[in-house]
């Protein structure tokens, strides 16, 4: 009976994971439109990335890591549409298969247990909860980079460990790990930050840091000029975040808010802080196996019971705990969501967890984890239903803006990517990174009031400078009255479209 039950459980979990993108085919946030457009940009330029995008007036340098987009640029649009919907599932399935294969090969779990672990893996809240961003259900380099990170770590551990019946230092595996890490550097901004954090592992074994340093040399070899430009833009963008945009991320892990909710006995507020916003607690809830594996691994290290591969898994998980903790507090929040650092190591935490727990409890713990993850995912579906049931349709706006002679200024400026992807209009804003240094400093000083909202004070000047033909205002913005007053004061723009969410203005000669 068990032989048939476990495959059935896996099939049901796969179906659960696929439900959101089966029901909601349009599931994209503004960031996703950027990634889809970046692929289009490569397609239009014979699979090469131009230095600048001519349709963007303002900051138009192409500095986003593009290796993953470059791979996808060779595929037809029909495949890209499919991949947008299901790539998150595919990469998680591949990662899960690698994890259970290792666990099964090392006789840590049975075949039936492997099916249940895989079932739990593809529904894990640390990978699928909608509030961690677009990774679970949309096209993003994050999925690809996490898959590459897992492969890199596998080869690195093989090269350093003799517990897998391979020589103590396998130079081929070490070189492969370095090359894969270089692909990660050329594919993901956050992946780059993870690798920089992993340099700390050199404290425990210098060869880990050496592997990462070599990966940077490989990245320079593969694409020297772009890689240098990419890293410089990344650093300047973080500098802007730190100096000018910290309020945008200051709500993350805001413990004073949580304490106030507790003092006022606001249970609803406490629930939302712990489940959605405070990343220390959300990580504990979504990644319990990480913290258990860390504690049990450290205990095993202190009692000298760890094997070689367990030791290196523990090093990686321990080192990534450092940026996780640091980015929960103060200005370090600009380095990204804290949870992402341990999310990158999710497959590794599962391997270490099942290798250090007493095997007598393995089946029981697998059942508990599976039930826990299913409950989380069902709650996730409930949240997704409320987020996407009344999804806004942009079709009417697209029809007004699908001309090459239109220069569109989105007052909620990160919405520009939506129209860059779906219309022929030019946009006023930025393509990738924001920087308060260099040639775009003056532009960005005037562009934003509080990111991503355009500064109404400089709206007339920017409209004149970039010959703006259309202005798009999101009515959900708190600055709606200010914008309407600023646009009215211009005296040259009239309202040509309005619905429940947007107002579109056009320059009078454009009518």
What topology does this entry show?
Elements: H1 2-23, H2 30-44, E1 56-59, H3 67-72, H4 77-105, H5 111-122, H6 125-128, H7 141-160, H8 171-185, H9 189-198, H10 206-244, H11 255-263, H12 267-277, H13 279-286, H14 288-302, H15 308-326, H16 338-343, H17 346-356, H18 362-388, H19 395-401, E2 407-410, H20 416-422, E3 426-430, H21 441-447, E4 448-450, E5 453-454, H22 459-465, E6 470-474, H23 480-490, E7 493-498, E8 502-507
Helix pairs in contact: 1-5, 1-18, 2-20, 4-5, 4-7, 4-17, 5-18, 7-8, 8-10, 9-10, 11-12, 12-13, 14-15, 14-17, 15-17
Describe the structure.
The chain is an alpha/beta fold. The chain has a domain at 395-510. Helices cover 62% and strands 7% of the residues. It contains 23 helices and eight strands. It has helices at residues 2-23, 30-44, 67-72, 77-105, 111-122, 125-128, 141-160, 171-185, 189-198, 206-244, 255-263, 267-277, 279-286, 288-302, 308-326, 338-343, 346-356, 362-388, 395-401, 416-422, 441-447, 459-465, 480-490; strands spanning 56-59, 407-410, 426-430, 448-450, 453-454, 470-474, 493-498, 502-507. The strands form two sheets. The protein has a six-stranded mixed sheet, with helices on both faces. Helix 5 (111-122) packs parallel to helix 18 and helix 11 runs antiparallel to helix 12. This is Glycosyltransferase RgtA/B/C/D-like domain-containing protein. The chain crosses the membrane at residues 86-104, 111-132, 144-162, 169-188, 194-222, 284-303, 309-329. Keywords: Membrane, Transmembrane, Transmembrane helix.
